[in-house]
Each structure stands twice: as C-alpha cells, then as structure tokens.
Design goal:
Length: 318
C-alpha cells in the first residue's frame, strides 16, 4: 500500500482527476477511499475534503509545466550550479534551495520559481548573518530537476530557445570575471567550474553557435588529488574538475554585451574591466583599474558601487 504523498507528481495528478470525477458523480468519501485502497493507494478523508472545497483549482494554477521560458532556462542553469534539490522521504518534503552572499542572485532564483509555479507573489528571501537564502517546496520541480540531471537531453529543448538565461544562471553560480593587474592588465571570464564535463561542453557549444563566442575547457584538478581539508582530514578528489573560460578580449566583449552576469558585483567588474581595456593604453590600464578596485587576499573589490537598473536582462534582477 502506497500513501498518496509518496506517489510521483504525475501519478498524483491522475488520482486527483479520478477523485474529481467520483466526487462529481456523487460518491462519498468512504467509497472513494475504498476504491483507492483497491488500487493499493492510501488517502485521508481530510485530503478529500480539501479537494472537494475546490482546492484542486489552486493546485492546477500552481502546478509546473516544463515549457521553454526565460525563467525556466535560468532556473536550469542555477540548478546545475549552486542550486540544490533535496527531499525528506519521511515527511514527503521536496525543496529547491539556493544560498548566496549576493541578495539579487537569490531574489532572481526565487522570482523564476514563482513564475514557474504560477504564484502571484514572489517567494521570500531570508538572511542569516551574511548569507541570503531561498528554500521553496515543490515536488514537481524537484522531480523535474531529478529527471534532467539523470538525462540532460531532456533539458536541451527547454534551454535552446533561451540560451542567454541558461548560460547566465550557470555563470552566476559558478563563474566570475577574472582580472589580473600585476605586470599588465588582463581580463578573462570563467563561465563555470564543474566536474560535469558534458555540461561544460554543451555550454561551450551554445556560446559558439548562439553568440559567436570562443571558449576553452581545461582540466584543473585530477582524481586522487588531496586539495582540501575537512575537520583536519585530507580529502582526495573522486572526480576531475574542469573550467570553461573565455580568454580572447573580443569574446569577453561579446559576453559582456550579450549575456553578462545578473549578480551586480560580477556584472560591474566585467563592464569596468572592458571599459578600461578599451579606453586606456596598456601603460595606463593597471593604474586606472586600481583607482576603482582594491585587492583583498582573494579578489578585487570595488571602492564605490552603483546599481544597474532593474529588469530581467543581463546585469539585473526582477
């Protein structure tokens, strides 16, 4: 005997349709429960009462249909990056989660899921210390993510109508502008770091075919390397790590104009680097960069910031 909550969302929809027909035909709760038990499905009287009071309409309104949209393409990119899909089998709790230091990144993630689930209001973003988080419950979206991670070919038709948003979602998660201002000024773009080589190869193909951008994939970490320590224990890599990178300045400019990042600090850093490269000669570029950015131990940080105008396009968030 299976409980209704443990069923796949597709099976749940079919059961709901059957129950609606039985309710319309005048069957009582006890008879409906008995008929479902004959199919080895257990359901509570409270659930039937909930549906009978027209809550099935709300279910349909908020249900997920995988059709190509900008929001879905961006969501897929994030879920192959920093996004996390989890389930609690005991409580039948399925959730999509994103944590980041960048508020606008998490807000855009929440906005996209709100659109995908046809919600009138955007899901809230919470802050704990310096981390922003969105944790959204949806069995249908969880199962969708599971399916495309098992068979990525199912995601491709959904991505290819809106490749900009997919690349942007992946790069917001895993990428950044890479700036060198030591002996000379140099700017490149890390689109993503991943152990998923086919994913990076696919992103590389999209960049070339859809935007005319040349990029390179390189292996940066190897199986067996001990490059991290957790609780004083050396951890060996079980997978190779690859990087997808844009090196030529002409391609960096194309990426800046056609895709960019929606995370404000990454967007501004890329645009500032491109402007300095275009407006100043080689002898002046380092000096001009250091007027607006200071180097901390890990990265260049802008001395003063301005916020891009809102919207869905590159460098902004809804």
């Amino acid at each position: 005997m299976q409980t209704f909550g443990s069923l796949h969302s597709t099976a749940q929809k079919e059961i709901k349709k059957e129950v609606c027909i039985m309710l319309a035909n005048g069957l009582g709760y006890k008879k409906i429960i008995k008929k479902l038990k004959e199919k080895e499905i257990s359901i509570s009287k409270g659930t039937l009462y909930y549906w009978c009071n027209k809550e099935t309409q709300r279910f349909r309104k908020n249900s997920f249909t995988p059709i190509p949209t900008k929001e879905l393409s961006y969501f897929i990119g994030v879920m192959f990056g920093d996004g996390c899909a989890t389930r609690d089998e005991i409580n039948y709790d399925y959730s999509l989660r994103l944590d980041s230091i960048d508020k606008e990144f998490v807000e855009k993630f929440a906005f996209c899921i709100s659109k995908l689930l046809k919600k009138e209001n955007v899901y809230p973003v919470h802050k704990c210390k310096h981390i922003f988080s969105a944790n959204i419950r949806s069995k249908e979206l969880y199962e969708f993510v599971n399916e495309i991670k098992t068979d990525f070919n199912k995601a491709k038709p959904l991505i290819e109508e809106n490749p900009t948003e997919f690349i942007q979602g992946l790069a917001d998660s895993e990428g950044c502008p890479s700036i060198s201002a030591n002996s000379f000024f140099y700017i490149s773009i890390v689109v993503a770091n991943s152990t998923n080589y086919p994913l990076l190869k696919y992103a590389q193909t999209l960049l070339a075919n859809c935007f005319g951008i040349d990029s390179k994939i390189r292996k940066t970490k190897f199986i067996g390397m001990t490059d991290s320590i957790i609780e004083n224990r050396l951890i060996k890599r079980t997978k190779d790590l690859f990087i997808l990178k844009i090196n030529k300045f002409e391609d960096v400019k194309k990426y800046s104009n056609k895709i960019n990042f929606s995370i404000i600090r990454k967007h501004q850093k890329l645009n500032d680097g491109v402007k300095i490269k275009e407006l100043f000669n080689k002898n002046e570029q380092q000096k001009e960069w250091k007027k607006i950015y200071l180097k901390d131990p890990k990265q260049w940080k802008k001395i003063s910031t301005t916020t891009p105008s809102p919207g869905f396009g590159p460098g902004s968030h809804p």
